[in-house]
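Worked problem 6 (solution included).
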Amino acid sequence: MRKFTTLLLAMLMIFAMAVPAYAAEEPVTITYSYWGTPDEAASVQAVADKFHEEYPNIIVEVMAIPNEEYTAKLNTMAAGGNLPDCGIMNENGVLDFASKGLLADISSMYEGADAMPLESITFKSEGKPVAYSAANEILFMYYNKDMFDAAGLEYPSATEAMTWDEFIETAKLLTLDKNGKNAADPEFDPENIVQYGCVVDNWTWQLEVWALSNGGRWFSEDGKECTINDPAVIEAIQKVADLTLVEHVMPYNAGLEDNGIQRSIATGNVAMATGGAWNVGTCLNSARDDIGLNYGVARLPMMERSVTICTGGPQVVFSQTKHPAEAMEFIKWYMKEENSWDSLIATGIWMPILEKYYTDPELTAKWIENPNFPDAEEYKAAVVDYAMECAESTCWYYIPHTNDFINLLRSVLGPVWTGEQTAEQAITENFDALNDVFLGF
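Solution. The predicted structure is:
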């Protein structure tokens, strides 16, 4: 989803300068695990040492574990009763650990604070917070202003989502063949397309937003039932596939890589594309400089209702720690906006986690009024306000086993993108297997 190790190190090089609000009675040493190489450990340890300067009675020792070994290593440590005190985790593994009793209840982390992390990025197990994302990342739509200008079309609204039919009609007018005919023209040649109207990213976890938009859910709201065979969910998946198979406004993609924006609007040959907030900083600013991309932002098109989903890499406190208060203090310090401002938030890679940045006009302006962002007024309506009004938690905030579920779903949907199967056939034939994964079998 994101180059998280690189971003982690970038964030860690920015230090908070706040006066410490905590002091242990006696010096305490805690361990913090993260995925990375031993060569990177010195940089991370330098930040842990900075924390120690502000909190003299808490010493943080960094434990570097290679990314590909991370979860397996933590499971081995858990079996031996020697997990680190705190660490980073993949979003889709948090509740698996929580279901085994391996994560601490962190309800008290923000007691007395003037602002809480957004509810939508709070991981909960049995109703109790066990992790907060270190950043808020929502999905929305990017569009190429020059292509809209050339077609004589108005820009998408930042305040109101297009209906799905309006989205298709607009995408047709922006899809051009080699002769300059658009996809609404009877003489359009779908075999020789030179500009596509849209890309709706089919990287599997992002597809959940369309189930919600179409009035369905992958899982019941209480997390007790797999409902991906709901006709509304199946219809939503088919609508995405039909952008390629029927409407000819989206290029084929197998959905096997997390590169929707990089292969679409950032290349300069796609007019509209769905993606994450992080794409502003990870590739679109470069595209603006390298190819002169003139882009704007808008809310996702809607099927039945306007909705987006959010995510973000979490920091956790492991339940085997003997120092939960100190571990929580470090994690809370680690996630402060001040620590990630210049390298991640101001560049457009991360969105703040505290609600006050979305509701306090001065803090919002501090965040979005900078040259790394699209037009501030448009960004506020299409992203900041959208996050507050329409964002719902991605399934891994309340469902375990989502890593295995999403990997299986990715395989199941492969024939749908090629047209070899309908979404109904693929989901129906594989529902028992998907449900077994959901149940943890």
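Discussion: The CA atoms of residues 165 and 190 lie 20 Å apart.
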